């Protein structure tokens, strides 16, 4: 099975104190530490496990600048076979549709049985997987936390309301977005990183993919970035249990919660 996994280089929230810049147009990116998007890392691990079980190959692709090559090499050190970088200034300020358009072109230029994305990235929109599937007219399953490979299809699990699990069968080729917790991503050591350090990663421009600046142009633009104002702090009830209950009832009455 030939699998393509879409990955993104994002700010590492475990290593950074994220702040909004002075004009509210973006986060402050000076001295920010970047890493692979967490959800994407789970997707790559799942792809590697599928390949190891049934054969085939795993290719990772990223739309970004030259620094995104670091993320691709990390995932190749993890076990992916190939990497593709889409690097063109026309994608610099694009939106989800622009990114999905670039990924669609990469997919159409290859031959893949399964396309995987992380369920979310740093923007939190969770839209790339669905957009790519729609553009390619492929079946799509979101928030997948279990995959069983069948003959020409996958059985995919999703957590639904109440902590329940549902299983669906989806025909190949297809697109799935992966939820965290589907597996335990393997550790990437220095030896693995050195092993892929000199591997050539092809870089594709918009023109290479048959795309124009209009194809990559953002249809949705961010207007502002801000941190919501904090509300009033919690009120700590003191006294005995009976006194706390009485105070709570008084507060609920004053707020109209009970009569």
Which helices and strands occur, and which strands form pairs?
Elements (H helix, E strand, L loop, with lengths): L1 E5 L2 E3 L22 E3 L1 H17 L2 E7 L5 H10 L3 E5 L9 H14 L4 E5 L9 H9 L3 E10 L3 E7 L5 E7 L2 E5 L11 H6 L7 E2 L8 H4 L24 H14 L5
Parallel strand pairs: 1-4, 1-6, 4-5, 5-11, 6-10, 7-10
Antiparallel strand pairs: 2-3, 7-8, 8-9
Helix pairs in contact: 3-4
GO molecular function, one term: electron transfer activity
Keywords: Electron transport, Transport
Pfam families: ETF
In short:
Residues 24-213 form the Electron transfer flavoprotein alpha/beta-subunit N-terminal domain. This is Electron transfer flavoprotein beta subunit. With 259 residues, the protein is α/β, with parallel strands linked by helices.
């Amino acid at each position: 099975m030939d699998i393509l996994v879409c990955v993104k280089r994002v700010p590492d929230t475990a290593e950074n104190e994220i702040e909004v810049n002075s004009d509210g147009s973006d986060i402050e990116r000076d001295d920010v530490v970047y890493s692979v998007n967490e959800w994407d890392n789970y997707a790559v691990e799942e792809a590697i496990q599928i390949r190891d079980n049934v054969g085939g190959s795993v290719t990772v692709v990223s739309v970004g600048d030259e620094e995104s090559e670091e993320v691709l090499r990390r995932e190749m050190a993890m076990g992916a076979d190939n990497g593709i970088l889409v690097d063109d200034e026309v994608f610099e300020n694009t939106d989800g549709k622009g990114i999905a358009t670039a990924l669609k072109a990469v997919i159409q230029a290859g031959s893949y049985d399964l396309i995987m994305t992380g369920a979310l990235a740093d923007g939190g929109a969770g839209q790339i997987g669905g957009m790519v599937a729609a553009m390619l007219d492929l079946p799509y399953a979101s928030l997948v936390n279990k995959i069983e490979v069948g003959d020409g299809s996958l059985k995919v699990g999703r957590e639904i309301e109440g902590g329940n699990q549902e299983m669906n069968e989806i025909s190949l080729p297809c697109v799935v977005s992966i939820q965290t917790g589907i597996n335990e991503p393997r550790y990437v050591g220095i030896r693995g990183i050195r092993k892929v350090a000199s591997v050539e990663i092809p870089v594709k421009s918009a023109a290479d993919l048959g795309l124009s600046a209009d194809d990559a142009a953002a249809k949705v633009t961010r207007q502002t970035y801000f941190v919501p104002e904090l509300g009033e702090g919690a009120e700590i009830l003191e006294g005995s249990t009976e006194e706390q209950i009485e105070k709570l009832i008084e507060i609920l009455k004053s707020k109209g919660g009970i009569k």
